[in-house]
Specification:
It contains 18 helices and no strands. The protein is mostly helical and 415 residues long.
């Protein structure tokens, strides 16, 4: 039964990936034919997505990883767990996130994949015999890890994500169950998309001392930028600030969402469409040394991702974080005249992701597997550790902080 639901969890992520790829492709086709169309389409869709989410699926808002972490907390038991993870929320997450990409928003699908797979895996408890004695926490951890493995096609990343993020507080490690779910879920992704890395293979030239200063600069800048991004998301989504925008978001969430959508559309048009979507296309183009090297991309993508998340749509930040970090590494390669730009791009991807998530081991393993960069193992690890350390000086951990915000829904439902 566990193997069957692990396969279903992996298949759900495969279907989700297919749907999101077609959604963003449809948006770019529309945008290429009508350049000003996003000025109307994106804010309208953003408001509609937020209305649908708030009205019918409030547990589907945001990344999805904080919901899984919240569901693992000891005070969340029985029926209350469905506020954060359920089969219904998994289905809603698939279509709402795909809708966000269809709108051109800066959305990642990997965080949502965690909640989707965890919801499918958690549903297995209804079919397991009581004598199996498999805790719900173990099913959630296994499902979330399988979601990462299938979404990124990075099984080692799934293992480390389970260890570093999901099983910190639960005390339910169930290693064999997690590994079974990751292997089976990962195989579903492998069967659908083949054994290919997301961004191809980086040619690693002979490393020398010439890499030291540019790499250190990438690590520190990624840590500062990622920490700022994490802090900005925590403050924005907590709703504790007294600024005019926070009051508008609380008073008129749909108008606020439409305003965020309009800003994302403007940024996308000004950047010639580069900030729309997850950022995979732009990152791959940079790694292949045929992408635009505009220095404003980092800032524009940073703002577009922040506004997309602040609006309240179901959206992950993994893929946009990789895009921001990669562009930052590319900019530093240009500034320092470092010859092998793809190396710094990969380091920037790992550094910024590690800074945002403050999960350095997960970040460096995911990037290593995505770029087939085994020759950069030590460099990626060092960059991730430094960036994560710098980020901790700037911001509290992102996902645990957002999980605490999610837990406030327990009190509101009880009242």
């Amino acid at each position: 039964m566990v193997i069957a639901f692990a396969a279903l969890a992996g298949l759900a992520v495969v279907v989700f990936t297919w749907l999101t790829e077609h959604a963003i492709s449809a948006f770019f086709s529309f945008q290429s034919q009508l350049w000003w169309g996003p000025l109307l389409w994106t804010p309208l869709c953003t408001a509609a997505i937020v209305w649908t989410t708030r009205t019918y699926f409030p547990g589907a808002a945001g990344s999805g990883i904080p919901q899984v972490l919240a569901a693992l907390e000891p005070q969340v038991t029985g029926p209350s767990r469905s506020l954060f993870v359920s089969l219904k929320l998994s289905i809603a997450k698939v279509f709402l996130t795909a809708w966000g990409l269809l709108a051109g928003l800066s959305v990642g699908r990997e965080g949502p994949s965690v909640q989707i797979a965890a919801g499918v895996m958690h549903h297995a408890r209804r079919w397991l015999p009581k004598k199996a004695q498999i805790p719900e926490h173990s099913l959630l951890i296994a499902g979330g890890a399988a979601g990462i493995a299938a979404a990124f096609n990075t099984p080692l990343g799934g293992v480390m994500f389970a260890i570093e993020e999901l099983s910190k507080k639960s005390g339910q490690r169930s290693t064999s169950l997690i590994l079974v779910a990751i292997v089976v879920g990962g195989l579903m992704g492998l069967s659908a998309y083949g054994n290919a890395s997301h961004f191809g293979e980086i040619r690693v030239e002979k490393l020398s001392w010439a890499l030291l200063m540019p790499a250190l600069l990438v690590a520190v800048m990624s840590g500062l930028a990622g920490g700022l991004f994490s802090r900005l998301l925590i403050v924005s989504l907590s709703g504790t600030s007294a600024d005019w925008f926070t009051r508008l978001r609380q008073r008129s969430p749909l108008w606020f969402a439409a305003g965020c959508g309009l800003a994302v559309a403007v940024l996308g048009i000004v950047s010639q469409g580069q900030t729309f979507g997850s950022g995979y296309v732009h990152t791959r183009a940079m790694l292949e040394s045929n992408g635009d090297t505009s220095f404003v991309y980092v800032l524009f993508k940073f703002i577009a991702t922040w506004l997309t998340t602040w609006a309240g749509v179901p959206a992950g930040v993994f893929a946009p974080s990789l895009a921001i970090g990669g562009a930052l590494g590319n900019d530093i390669a240009i500034i320092t005249s470092y010859a092998n730009a793809p190396t710094l791009i990969a380091l920037g991807m790992a550094g910024f992701l590690a800074a945002v998530t403050q999960a350095p081991m997960t970040a460096f393993i995911i990037v290593m597997e995505m770029v087939d960069g085994h020759g950069l193992v030590l460099s990626l690890m060092a960059c991730s550790m430094v960036a994560s350390g710098v980020s901790r000086l700037v911001s509290a951990p992102l996902y645990p902080s957002l999980a605490e915000i999610q837990l406030k829904r327990l009190a509101s439902v009880a009242n």
